[in-house]
């Protein structure tokens, strides 16, 4: 992977099957109830269930040595960050919000364990002089691209869209391709259950 490549790397939690099934139901409900507005002439594009993830830190295009450093950092995080109890990483996604041209479901409250993982990654990426997206951390899962949710939420929407995100793995992943051809590949991954 080179800086010129289309590959972008990121640290993320991958959900278990129950979480993926619940996220698909939210996607379907949003479409069925007309809760999406297209932002592209091609219309909304549903994320595939096998691509659902919760990003902890987005690095972006990375040189091979940065990929190695990030892979080593992930192994250190798993050893040092006390994430044996995967239930501490469970996150309630109950807030439909827009990020750019994507309709997402986000957490109103971030569990302390997730904040700890993000801080560990942020601090160590800074120490390694690896640039990453350092905007404030808002745990979310993208459900639909090329679409936005209406500005005014539907009554009782939060309770309709509540999903408990239970991670099955933490990893360093590469995203490549464009549009509907985007693929996510594990560079390094550790099971959590």
Automatic annotation (TrEMBL):
Residues at the active site: 53 (proton donor), 140 (proton acceptor)
UniProt motif HXTX 2: location: 140-143
Source domain of life: Bacteria
A single GO molecular function term of this UniProt record: RNA 2',3'-cyclic 3'-phosphodiesterase activity
Short sequence motif HXTX 1: positions: 53-56
EC number: 3.1.4.58
Catalytic activity: a 3'-end 2',3'-cyclophospho-ribonucleotide-RNA + H2O = a 3'-end 2'-phospho-ribonucleotide-RNA + H(+)
Function: Hydrolyzes RNA 2',3'-cyclic phosphodiester to an RNA 2'-phosphomonoester.
Similarity field: Belongs to the 2H phosphoesterase superfamily. ThpR family.
The protein, known as: RNA 2',3'-cyclic phosphodiesterase
Record organism: Derxia gummosa DSM 723
């Amino acid at each position: 992977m080179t800086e010129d490549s289309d590959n972008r790397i990121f640290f993320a939690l991958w959900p278990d099957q129950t979480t993926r099934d619940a996220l698909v139901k939210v996607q379907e409900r949003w479409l069925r109830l007309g809760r999406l507005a297209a932002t592209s002439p091609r219309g909304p594009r549903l994320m595939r269930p096998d691509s659902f993830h919760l990003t902890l830190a987005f690095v972006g295009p990375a040189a091979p040595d940065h990929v190695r450093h990030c892979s080593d950092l992930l192994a250190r995080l798993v050893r040092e960050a006390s994430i044996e109890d995967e239930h501490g990483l469970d996150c309630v996604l109950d807030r439909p919000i827009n990020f750019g041209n994507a309709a997402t479901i986000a957490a109103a409250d971030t569990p302390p364990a997730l904040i700890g993982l993000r801080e560990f990654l942020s601090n160590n990426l800074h120490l390694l002089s690896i640039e990453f997206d350092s905007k404030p951390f808002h745990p979310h899962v993208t459900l639909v691209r090329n679409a936005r949710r209406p500005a005014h939420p539907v009554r009782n929407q939060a309770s309709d869209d509540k999903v408990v995100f239970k991670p099955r793995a933490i990893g360093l992943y590469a995203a490549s391709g464009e549009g509907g051809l985007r693929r996510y590949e594990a560079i390094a991954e550790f099971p959590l259950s």
